[in-house]
Amino acid sequence: MKTKLIFFAFLVFSMLNMKAQCNPTITSPRLGVQFPDRILFCETEDEVLSTQVFDNYQWYKQEWTWQTPNNNPWVAIPGANSQQLTISGNDQLYYFKVVVSQGDCTAESPAIMADGFVYGLPAMMTTLTPGTYEDLGAGEINVCEGASVKFDNVFPIVYGVHTWYKCFPSNIPPVAGDPCIVSGVTGDSYSATESGQYGFYACTEYCPDQCKFLGTNSFVKLNFGNWEFCENMGTGETRSKDNSLRIYPNPTAQFLYIGKEADKSYKEVSIIDMTGKLVLQKKDHQHHQAIDVSHLVPGNYIIVSKSTDGKNVYKNKFIKK
């Protein structure tokens, strides 16, 4: 009898203990498709977040920031007191969690993020070999015959199939037979060896029906020829009127400097990761000031710098160790 009582007491205690356990988690159709803790939206479609069955629910949201730790407050969403919560593409760059109660137990779920990197607008980086070109400004460059110019989509993770152009297209979206289309090139980069006006049209890889055009204002005009400055071709010298900025040290673990002493200062400096997300931005930056990037995750980044007069925009890559 004593053994039965002990067993019964143990069973009751176990049942009470089980009742007190509540470990909510969040699920949704898009969650974890590319990243385990993120939802990636296509345009502004709705997404339904769900958790397990409990007695009470309260959903919260927190605005994303590049700063670590994130000191933005968690805000209770008015009326969000059910098992499910519907969010949309307008909720990008927010974290979500749910606090639940069951009997005498109260607990909160791990946070998930509604991300929007698929909306990184197309941007093109131009890579030239020192000593082989002269930048005329306004998107026009003289290039030495025999050299090449490499164009890259700044956000290759975002976009899949590309259509590259060597002149302004007559139709957007692309139409088969357009003489401006570079035949057989669908990747996120292209190396040009002849004169033309270059740009691209691309569709996002995650959302195949979501396509973007670079825009003719962002096309780059190349004029290949035997220019006077080409006499120095191969010596490493360059007479570019508006060369890319010096980025140093590169790679870097903590401090990064950008430099073109002629500019003295930059109206705006933005650092973008390879998913297209803005991770750091500085206003009115002086060329000799250090930029602390120690908090960034190791990897490749794009740094976009605007001159004080707003006429020049520089795009460079750097590596965070």
Automatic annotation (TrEMBL):
Domain of life: Bacteria
Keywords: Signal
Keyword NADP: no
Secretion system C-terminal sorting domain sequence ranges: 247-315
Signal peptide: 1-20
Keyword Signal: yes
Record protein name field: T9SS C-terminal target domain-containing protein
